[in-house]
Design a protein that fits this description.
This protein is α/β, with parallel strands linked by helices. 36% of the residues lie in helices and 18% in strands. It contains nine helices and nine strands. The chain starts with 18 loop residues before the first strand and ends with a helix.
Length: 231
């Protein structure tokens, strides 16, 4: 029996099941963390920061999503944050949320390609294309999801809510260094974010001040530890 369920967060199976390797044995698949958010919020910059912070201690790779180009993958490769073959690009050809939530096939193919290319892979970061406040990842694609908003979008953004802001496992308020320039009140943003998220964590950061995104990197490490104990 397969009951009808339109909840994109419910895959109907254990996401931590073992996968088969090429020899017919079993291996643990890489943990997958999705990074979503509006256009220009700093998703690619955060992804690069996490690669720099974690690349020497965690076997990781990245899947990027752009509608028509490979812009984000090209940026990461040129920045040298990972070996070029550890970055795979998906061109969605449609609204970004379609490829991370509605039809995740292209992203799953990219993740599995990386897992076969690097059998010891521990973490895959899946970066969404720029989207809106409704963008969430299917739990069939990622185990945890991060949603990024930026101060330049205005201090009203967190209280507008939307599934991205309210349900993501981590909300990142990015570019806090711009607050004085755009007249945004960081206190209001933080208070609204905590209010609408019901206790889910919030990080406010400036990659200018802390280029290695230490709080987000620490959160990623904690997720890896947690998921390792239940797999």
């Amino acid at each position: 029996m397969h009951p009808v369920n339109f909840d994109p967060a419910d895959t109907g199976h254990d996401p931590h099941d073992h996968d088969h390797d090429h020899q017919g044995g079993h291996r643990r698949r890489a943990v997958r963390i999705g990074i979503g958010g509006p256009v220009g919020s700093g998703k690619t910059a955060l992804t690069a920061a996490l690669c720099r912070a974690l690349g020497d201690e965690i076997d990781l790779a990245v899947v990027t999503n752009d509608i028509y180009t490979t812009e984000d993958a090209d940026f990461l490769r040129k920045a040298g944050v990972l070996a070029p073959e550890r970055v795979e690009a998906v061109r969605t050809g449609c609204c970004p949320h379609t490829a991370i939530r509605d039809d995740i096939t292209a992203n799953l193919d990219a993740v599995e390609l990386l897992e076969h290319r690097f059998p010891g892979l521990e973490l895959v970061i899946v970066e969404s294309g720029g989207d809106n406040l409704t963008a969430v990842f299917s739990r069939g694609l990622v185990d945890r999801q991060v949603f990024v908003v930026d101060v330049a979008g205005g201090d009203k953004v967190p209280r507008k809510g939307g599934p991205g802001v309210t349900t993501a496992d981590l909300l990142v308020i990015n570019k806090t260094d711009l607050a004085p320039l755009v007249g945004a009140d960081l206190g209001v943003m933080a208070a609204d974010a905590h209010r609408v998220r019901g206790g889910l964590p919030v990080v406010a950061q400036s990659l200018v001040a802390t280029p290695d995104a230490p709080e987000v990197a620490a959160w990623v490490r904690a997720q890896l530890r947690t998921l390792a104990t239940v797999r």
